[in-house]
Amino acid sequence: MNTGPKWQALPEVSTHDSDLIERICQHDQRALAALYDEMANRVYSLALYILRNSYHAEEVTQDIFMKIWDHADQWDESKAKLSTWILAMTRNAAIDRLRKEKRRPAVVDSPLDKILQMETVESDGHQLRTMMHHLPKEQQEAIYLNFFGGMSHTDIAEMTGVPLGTIKTRLRLGLKKLRTMWTERS
Amino acid sequence: MMDCEQMTHLIPDYVLGTLDDAQRQKFKALLTDCPELQELLAAYEVVAEPLLHSAPHRRAPEHLRSRIFGEPSPHTRQRRYWLLIAAILVLVLVGSNIFWAQRTDDLDAEIDSLTSQLLATPPAIIPQQQVPVAMYNQAYQANNFSNMTPLNQFYASNEQQALASITWARSALNDSYIGVLSTQNLYSENTEQAYQLWLYRSGEPPTSAGVFDVDWFGNGMLIFELEEPIDAYEEVSITEEPISGSEHPTGPEVIRESLEP
User: Fold this and answer.
1) Residue B160: which of A52, A179, A182 has the nearest Cβ?
2) A105-146: pLDDT as tens digits
3) Residue A60 placed within a domain
4) CATH: 2.60.40, 1.20.58, 3.40.630, 3.40.50. Which one for B152-258?
5) A26 and A87, same domain (yes or no)
6) Does the CB of A129 have a partner CB in chain B at under 8 Å?
7) Which of B24-28, B75-79, B235-239 has the lowest average pLDDT?
8) CA–CA dist B68, A70 (Å, integer)
9) Does one domain contain both A74 and A30?
10) Which one of A92, B2, B100, B120 has the largest count of C-beta atoms within 10 Å of its C-beta?
11) What is the dihedral of CA B96, B102, B107, B113, to 10 degrees?
12) How many domains does chain A have?
């Protein structure tokens, strides 16, 4: 049985974040639908990037919007943009899924990566991804496994068979360069 | 004291504000004992948010919206229909296999007679029962295959843990060979694409063994017929191709494996 949100006749939805969330708190399905139309591709893209499995990415996407429906009041406008709050929840849910299934995040340059790389859009995220490609592959891998895989230094060292000290250096140097490139972008 | 190295995975969570209050306080206290993590923290404070947005853009499937908002999707209905047919087909095949295994030698003549009748009747049965031709042919070949002892089996896998196995046997009805490819974890990212199985040997263009689709769980099956045993070939591969299949491999190769022992 579908226990999803039910329609309610309420005024037209504004796309303003706080207004959307306020309406979702009142269980206005049109507000959730508007948020879905705005965010679904980004949520699905992030879940797919972490999980490398379209079925699981769909499940995570669905869970995230159900969570927003039930807990929209947990968004704190003063702490994060709405999109950041939603994507941070998506990242956590996808990493939890990886851990639950005892799967390891796929390292970069898989065939799926090549397919994924074909569809990109011009955005801050795309700019950062381009910057990532300027880093040595080992540093990209360390950042990917730490940020998108939720893995510690120790986990990465165990998974890759590379000494712990080397992993620490790769992550530190990679993030430092990425930070510099990001702050110095025109 | 918690090992500093084991805390690194919490830095993005701390920066993105996804730790609960207790975790946050604990992490904050431990940070003072782990100066090397402070450098990572400073970097993540700048790049964590753009990193969240950096996943390559993909469109969420159309049926997902319907699923969330409670509208039945034609796509979902169609998939359920095919899953139901596949389940029935599996039951029929398993039942058939058990049935034939229980027959004794004195019924061989009857089996031969039934097999001959089956061979002669496909065109008449298909329209009457309105079974899709391709599925009928697959069931027909699988029924034939279930009566044979497999000659050999081989497995292949790729980095995404997709697994393909091919079992083949000599046909009971003619001089050909029948192979059954089954896949697991072979996830299709593009619903407009199918997979195609190719066989290779030196000096010849690749031979297509057929086109197949996978379900949401990456399970797929292809039953194919060859004039020679599959080990007459040197390599196999699976590529993504248009649903109607291709004359030569054109799409990304998802699995390639040698058939040589």
Assistant:
1) A52
2) 655 444 444 444 444 445 677 788 888 888 999 999 999 999
3) yes
4) 2.60.40
5) yes
6) yes
7) B75-79
8) 13
9) yes
10) A92
11) 10
12) 2
Please check whether residue B58 touches A, CB under 8 A. Answer: yes
Is the pLDDT at A95 greater than 90, yes or no?
yes
**Nearest neighbour of A128 by CB, restricted to B40, B50, B70:** B50
User: What CATH code is carried by the domain that includes residue A96?
Assistant: 1.10.1740.10
Nearest Cα residue in chain B from A55: B216
- The Cα–Cα gap between B116 and A123 comes to 65
Q: What is the pLDDT of residue A112?
A: 41
CA distance A25 to A18: 10
**What's the ipTM?**
0.83
Owning domain of residue A131 = 111-183
pLDDT at residue B48, as a whole number: 94
Q: Rounded distance, CA A68 to CA A32, Å? A: 8
For the stretch B115-163, pLDDT in tens is 565 555 444 333 333 334 444 455 555 555 555 555 566 667 776 677 7
